[in-house]
Each structure stands twice: as C-alpha cells, then as structure tokens.
Amino acid sequence: MPRAVFTLQVRPDRLAEYRERHAAVWPDMLCALRDAGWHDYRLYLRDDGLLVGVVETDDLAAAQTAVDATEVSARWEASMAPFFVTGDGSGKAELSLVFDLDAQLTALGEPTTAAPGDPS
C-alpha cells in the first residue's frame, strides 16, 4: 500500500497541549480515520512545531475527503484548528518521495531491509 507523508506547522506555544490531545484521540475519530482508509497513520512532532504525518493509503486526497465527510471530523478539526500556525490546519503539504532504500536494493537484486516475515 502506498505511503503518503505530509507536514503541518503547530504553534510552538501549543506543543504540550497538542501532544496531550493526541495521547488519547476520541474513539469515534479513530474509527472515522480507519473507516475512511487511513492505515498505519502516525504523527511526529519536532520541538519547533514541525509536524510530519505518515499514512498508508491508496489515495490521500480520497481518504481525506472521506474522513472530512464525517461529523466527528468536523468537531475534531474545529477543536484542533487553534493549534496550527495557519489557524485552521489548511497548511498541510504532501511531500514527494526522493529516496527508497528497499526499491533501489530490489532494483540491484539485493536483499531489502524488510523484517523477517514482512511481505514488503
């Protein structure tokens, strides 16, 4: 399954509360993400507020549209908007892949870094 990576900028004065909110995301929001096609979704936060999201999904735009169509997402996004420098979370920027170790090893006919038993 393809992996998408994106960035956002969290306001530096809200980092601690942002971390707290994500320590226990609402159960119905978790289910909405799953049901919309978000798989193995992770967020990484740097001390200056750079947020990096990594998600496996066939189509990030379609998965985002599907989750945006839920009532819980509207509530969650409204509650999280003040945390972002843009004030509404609209600064999401998808990153393009420039290097893939396993793909290049495979092209050479070399063993990849996949863990034993991992089909990827």
UniProtKB/TrEMBL annotation:
One of its GO terms (biological process) is rhamnose catabolic process. GO terms for molecular function: racemase and epimerase activity, acting on carbohydrates and derivatives. This is L-rhamnose mutarotase.
